[in-house]
Amino acid sequence: MNISSHYKLTHFIPWTRVKIYRMLLLSIVPTVLFYFFGLNWVAIPWVPVALLGTATAFISGFKNTQTYNRMWEARQIYGAIINSSRAFGIMVKDFVRTASTEEDKALHKEIIYRHFAWLTALRFQLRETKSWENIKTKSYNKEYLKYYKVPEWESNLEDELKPFLKENELQYILSTKNRATQIISDQSSVLRNLNESGKISDFYYANLVIQLKDLYDQQGKCERIKNFPYPRQFSSINIYFTNLFCILLPLGFIGEFSKLIEKFGENIVWLTIPFSIILGWVFLVLEQIGESTENPFEGNANDIPTNTNLQKHRNRLKRNAWRKRFTIRNSASK
User: Of 9, 107, 165, 318, which is most buried by a Cβ count within 10 Å?
Assistant: First the structure.
């Protein structure tokens, strides 16, 4: 996720340059027809253009508000997952107790690592590409990927799960369709067995199950946003209105500037091009920003970060493994 103070123009202009090219073409053609070929009919009154622009502004504002709400809801859900995960870790550490300290540590590690596996499987599921998502279909989004990486597209789920699950459990999880759901199901079975063996009291077991239910709920909320797009009818009408407004915008400017020809000369009409580009770019960029916010888990630069804490944990595992090998080698050399 982009956490800088703002987007630099060196990033923002290339990301939206297709819109600039479009407005350049849409403004040059009618201006040339009016100036060189005397086609005065291309000049239209400004009033209908202004009315359409007002309607387009309302629709764009509505879309951007709703897509931002989708993103903010996704951020709240994933924040709840982080909080529940911390609570689950504390509860496992304090509630799972045996007669042996070493056995306690082994059980804690197994349960916590299975939870890491759930988080890993969930983030991979949330990064799967849907037909309505734009990250891999729009040229400007694919081009912008050079500025950042999506970890889930740079690795595969099996390699990411190996540090957290035993081989037989890993192969079973990979054979299922909804891996995250199955991992929580396995976690519940393990906790039930620990309760039946007396390693978790009934009261503590009930609290841990409630915590698993909460994680299930948060996963379902993530899947609801991931699997249900911003309504296509609202998205479509915003595209149609914005493009229609941008087509009529130069014609309205020609109509206005043609009224000033007697005072400033015929060359005043060429101001249609820069004014149309600037105003049309604003509306087209508003539509593009709303589009890029529609799907907060698809992998855009501003989407919900799903792997930050897990990546830190994996780096810590690698450092600990390296230190362990280094210690063994030093001991052997002595």
Answer: 165
pLDDT tens digits, 101-121: 899 999 999 999 999 999 999
pTM: 0.87
Residue closest to 302 by CA, chosen among 150, 153, 118, 131 = 150
Give the span between the Cα atoms of 275 and 187, in whole angstroms.
61
Q: Are 188 and 211 in contact (CB under 8 A)?
A: no
**CA–CA separation, 85 and 82 (whole Å):** 5
pLDDT tens for 226-238 read: 999 999 999 999 9
Handedness of CA 178, 179, 184, 189 (dihedral sign): positive
Which DSSP string corresponds to 192-212? HHHHHTTSS-HHHHHHHHHHH
Q: What is the CA radius of gyration of the chain?
A: 28
Q: Which residue has the higher pLDDT, 11 or 252?
A: 252
The answer to whether residues 141 and 300 touch, using CB atoms and an 8 Å cutoff, is yes
**Backbone conformation region of residue 176, classed left if phi is above 0, alpha if psi is from -120 to 50, else beta:** beta
Q: Which amino acid is at 99?
A: A
pLDDT, tens digit (0-9, with 9 covering 90-100), for 261-285: 999 999 999 999 999 999 999 999 9
